[in-house]
Amino acid sequence: MIRGFLSDVLAKWKRFRWQGLVKVWAVFMVIALVLLVESLGLHYGATRFDITYLDRDKAIPAANAIAGEKATNLLVVDSSQEGVSDAEAMLDQILLDMKVPTTTVDVADENAEFPALNHYGTIVVAMPNLDRLGEHVLQIMQWAKKGGGVMFAMTPEKTGYLDVIGPQIGIESSTYEYVATEGITPSEDFMLGGG
Fold first, then answer.
1. Topology of domain 63-169, per CATH?
2. Beta bridge partners of residue 126, listed in sequence order
3. In this predicted model, what pLDDT tens digit does every residue of 50-99 receive, in sequence order?
4. Distance between CA atoms of residues 8 and 24, nearest Å
5. Rounded CA gap, 124 and 140, in Å?
6. Which of 73, 56, 158 is nearest to 121 (CA)?
7. Radius of gyration, alpha carbons of the chain
8. pTM here?
9. What is the DSSP track for 37-49?
Protein backbone atom coordinates (compact mmCIF):
# COMPACT_ATOMS: atom_id res chain seq x y z
CA MET A 1 0.00 0.00 0.00
CA ILE A 2 2.76 2.41 0.87
CA ARG A 3 4.65 1.27 -2.21
CA GLY A 4 1.63 2.01 -4.41
CA PHE A 5 1.20 5.40 -2.84
CA LEU A 6 4.85 6.30 -3.46
CA SER A 7 4.74 5.17 -7.08
CA ASP A 8 1.52 7.19 -7.56
CA VAL A 9 3.16 10.34 -6.13
CA LEU A 10 6.26 9.76 -8.26
CA ALA A 11 4.16 9.42 -11.39
CA LYS A 12 2.29 12.64 -10.61
CA TRP A 13 5.62 14.39 -9.98
CA LYS A 14 6.94 13.36 -13.39
CA ARG A 15 3.84 14.78 -15.07
CA PHE A 16 3.96 17.99 -12.95
CA ARG A 17 4.61 20.92 -15.23
CA TRP A 18 6.40 23.28 -12.78
CA GLN A 19 9.14 20.97 -11.50
CA GLY A 20 11.91 23.49 -12.13
CA LEU A 21 10.11 26.22 -10.18
CA VAL A 22 9.61 23.93 -7.19
CA LYS A 23 13.31 23.03 -7.23
CA VAL A 24 14.29 26.73 -7.21
CA TRP A 25 11.83 27.40 -4.39
CA ALA A 26 13.28 24.47 -2.42
CA VAL A 27 16.81 25.86 -2.82
CA PHE A 28 15.67 29.29 -1.52
CA MET A 29 13.96 27.63 1.44
CA VAL A 30 17.16 25.72 2.30
CA ILE A 31 19.19 28.97 2.11
CA ALA A 32 16.63 30.74 4.31
CA LEU A 33 16.74 27.89 6.83
CA VAL A 34 20.56 27.96 6.94
CA LEU A 35 20.55 31.74 7.49
CA LEU A 36 17.94 31.41 10.20
CA VAL A 37 19.92 28.75 12.04
CA GLU A 38 23.10 30.83 11.71
CA SER A 39 21.45 34.01 12.99
CA LEU A 40 20.03 32.23 16.03
CA GLY A 41 23.56 31.71 17.29
CA LEU A 42 24.51 35.38 16.96
CA HIS A 43 23.57 37.85 19.62
CA TYR A 44 24.06 41.53 18.92
CA GLY A 45 24.73 44.01 21.66
CA ALA A 46 25.65 47.65 21.90
CA THR A 47 28.69 48.91 23.73
CA ARG A 48 27.75 51.22 26.54
CA PHE A 49 29.55 54.54 26.41
CA ASP A 50 29.68 56.74 29.44
CA ILE A 51 29.86 60.39 28.41
CA THR A 52 30.82 62.73 31.18
CA TYR A 53 29.93 66.34 30.65
CA LEU A 54 31.81 69.21 32.16
CA ASP A 55 29.97 70.80 35.07
CA ARG A 56 28.35 74.13 34.23
CA ASP A 57 30.37 75.94 36.88
CA LYS A 58 33.63 74.59 35.40
CA ALA A 59 32.85 75.47 31.76
CA ILE A 60 34.82 78.40 30.38
CA PRO A 61 32.91 80.92 28.19
CA ALA A 62 34.39 81.45 24.72
CA ALA A 63 35.19 85.10 25.49
CA ASN A 64 37.27 84.02 28.50
CA ALA A 65 38.94 81.22 26.51
CA ILE A 66 40.41 83.64 23.96
CA ALA A 67 40.98 86.57 26.35
CA GLY A 68 44.65 87.50 26.36
CA GLU A 69 45.38 85.46 23.22
CA LYS A 70 47.25 87.15 20.38
CA ALA A 71 44.83 88.00 17.56
CA THR A 72 45.31 85.77 14.52
CA ASN A 73 42.48 87.25 12.46
CA LEU A 74 41.87 90.79 11.22
CA LEU A 75 38.27 91.89 10.59
CA VAL A 76 38.15 94.94 8.30
CA VAL A 77 34.83 96.84 8.23
CA ASP A 78 33.47 100.19 7.09
CA SER A 79 30.61 101.10 9.42
CA SER A 80 29.52 103.96 7.13
CA GLN A 81 28.31 101.48 4.48
CA GLU A 82 24.83 100.01 4.52
CA GLY A 83 24.50 96.56 6.11
CA VAL A 84 28.08 96.41 7.39
CA SER A 85 27.11 96.84 11.06
CA ASP A 86 24.80 93.81 10.85
CA ALA A 87 27.49 91.77 9.10
CA GLU A 88 30.05 92.83 11.69
CA ALA A 89 27.80 91.75 14.56
CA MET A 90 27.22 88.38 12.90
CA LEU A 91 30.93 87.86 12.15
CA ASP A 92 31.91 88.86 15.69
CA GLN A 93 29.62 86.15 17.05
CA ILE A 94 30.83 83.53 14.56
CA LEU A 95 34.49 84.26 15.29
CA LEU A 96 33.80 84.20 19.03
CA ASP A 97 32.00 80.84 18.72
CA MET A 98 34.97 79.52 16.73
CA LYS A 99 37.30 80.92 19.42
CA VAL A 100 39.31 82.90 16.87
CA PRO A 101 41.03 85.89 18.50
CA THR A 102 40.21 88.83 16.24
CA THR A 103 41.20 92.48 15.88
CA THR A 104 38.60 94.71 14.21
CA VAL A 105 39.54 97.77 12.15
CA ASP A 106 36.84 100.22 11.06
CA VAL A 107 38.11 102.22 8.08
CA ALA A 108 35.27 104.73 8.55
CA ASP A 109 37.08 105.94 11.67
CA GLU A 110 39.55 108.59 10.51
CA ASN A 111 41.76 107.94 13.56
CA ALA A 112 41.92 104.18 13.01
CA GLU A 113 45.36 102.91 12.10
CA PHE A 114 45.59 100.02 9.67
CA PRO A 115 47.76 97.35 11.31
CA ALA A 116 50.69 95.47 9.79
CA LEU A 117 49.27 92.42 8.04
CA ASN A 118 52.16 90.09 8.87
CA HIS A 119 50.80 89.74 12.43
CA TYR A 120 47.72 87.87 11.17
CA GLY A 121 47.00 84.53 9.55
CA THR A 122 43.60 85.47 8.12
CA ILE A 123 41.71 88.60 7.10
CA VAL A 124 37.93 88.97 6.78
CA VAL A 125 36.82 91.97 4.71
CA ALA A 126 33.21 92.89 5.51
CA MET A 127 32.25 95.77 3.24
CA PRO A 128 30.71 95.86 -0.22
CA ASN A 129 32.54 98.97 -1.51
CA LEU A 130 36.29 98.38 -1.40
CA ASP A 131 37.22 101.96 -2.39
CA ARG A 132 37.31 102.99 1.29
CA LEU A 133 40.23 100.60 1.77
CA GLY A 134 42.25 102.46 -0.87
CA GLU A 135 45.79 101.16 -1.23
CA HIS A 136 45.23 98.71 1.63
CA VAL A 137 43.35 96.48 -0.83
CA LEU A 138 46.54 96.04 -2.82
CA GLN A 139 48.50 95.36 0.39
CA ILE A 140 45.97 92.70 1.38
CA MET A 141 46.24 91.03 -2.02
CA GLN A 142 50.06 91.04 -1.89
CA TRP A 143 49.86 89.57 1.63
CA ALA A 144 47.44 86.88 0.36
CA LYS A 145 49.76 86.08 -2.55
CA LYS A 146 52.46 85.30 0.03
CA GLY A 147 50.22 82.75 1.75
CA GLY A 148 47.69 84.70 3.84
CA GLY A 149 44.01 83.83 3.81
CA VAL A 150 41.43 86.45 2.78
CA MET A 151 37.65 86.14 2.87
CA PHE A 152 35.28 88.74 1.44
CA ALA A 153 32.26 88.33 3.71
CA MET A 154 30.03 90.63 1.66
CA THR A 155 29.58 90.65 -2.12
CA PRO A 156 31.95 93.32 -3.46
CA GLU A 157 30.45 96.10 -5.56
CA LYS A 158 32.00 96.93 -8.91
CA THR A 159 34.57 99.64 -8.31
CA GLY A 160 37.98 100.50 -9.66
CA TYR A 161 39.71 98.53 -6.91
CA LEU A 162 37.55 95.46 -7.58
CA ASP A 163 38.52 95.66 -11.26
CA VAL A 164 42.19 95.61 -10.22
CA ILE A 165 41.99 92.68 -7.78
CA GLY A 166 39.10 90.82 -9.47
CA PRO A 167 41.23 88.39 -11.51
CA GLN A 168 43.22 87.50 -8.38
CA ILE A 169 40.07 86.44 -6.52
CA GLY A 170 38.45 84.60 -9.42
CA ILE A 171 36.22 87.31 -10.93
CA GLU A 172 36.46 87.04 -14.71
CA SER A 173 34.04 89.85 -15.54
CA SER A 174 31.69 92.18 -13.68
CA THR A 175 29.04 94.82 -14.35
CA TYR A 176 27.43 97.60 -12.38
CA GLU A 177 24.07 95.79 -12.29
CA TYR A 178 23.26 92.58 -10.47
CA VAL A 179 22.18 89.67 -12.64
CA ALA A 180 19.37 87.32 -11.60
CA THR A 181 20.43 83.71 -12.07
CA GLU A 182 18.16 80.86 -13.10
CA GLY A 183 20.03 78.37 -10.94
CA ILE A 184 23.40 77.03 -9.92
CA THR A 185 24.98 73.84 -11.22
CA PRO A 186 28.06 72.85 -9.19
CA SER A 187 31.02 71.33 -10.97
CA GLU A 188 31.76 67.61 -10.67
CA ASP A 189 34.46 68.08 -8.02
CA PHE A 190 32.62 70.76 -6.03
CA MET A 191 32.14 68.57 -2.98
CA LEU A 192 33.79 65.33 -1.89
CA GLY A 193 31.58 62.39 -2.79
CA GLY A 194 29.13 64.67 -4.54
CA GLY A 195 29.60 63.38 -8.05
1. Rossmann fold (3.40.50)
2. 77
3. 888 878 787 788 887 788 889 999 999 999 999 999 999 999 999 999 99
4. 23
5. 10
6. 73
7. 35
8. 0.62
9. HHHHT----PPP-
